[in-house]
Amino acid sequence: MDKAFLENPGIGSIFITGSRLYMIASYLEKKKMKLIILVGYDLLDSNIKFLKSGTSKVFNWTRPEEQTYKGIKKLFEYLSLHKVPDKIEYLPVDIVTSENVDFFLK
Fold first, then answer.
1. pTM listed for this prediction
2. Nearest-CA neighbor of 101 among 71, 57, 64, 66?
3. How does DSSP classify residue 85?
4. What's the rounded Cα separation, in Å, for the pair 45 and 16?
5. Which of 58, 61, 68, 75 has its CA 20 to 30 A from that of 97?
6. How far, in Å, CA of 106 to CA of 56, rounded?
7. What would the pLDDT profile of 22-40 be if each residue is shown by its tens digit?
C-alpha cells in the first residue's frame, strides 16, 4: 500500500470489490489518511466499525439473501420444470452510509 500511494499521490478514493474493506480502512487509519473515500461491499462487523467511525463512507449492499434465493429458484425451475431463465435479472442495490446502516442491520 505504501508503494501504491507513493507512486499515485492523487488517490482520492478506493473501491474495494471484496469483503476486506476493513484491511484498507485499518491501513488508512494507522497512516492518518482521512481524505480518502472508501467504497465497498459486505456489511461485516469489521467493515461496519469503519463505516460508523467515518473511515469508510459508503457500501453497496446487494442483498445477498435475495440473490441466493433467486439463483436457486431459477436453477430449480430450469432443472425441474425445463423453464429457460431470462438472460437478465435486475436486482436492487442499496446504498448504505453511516446514517442508515442500522436500518440494514435489523
1. 0.71
2. 57
3. P
4. 16
5. 68
6. 21
7. 999 999 999 988 888 999 8
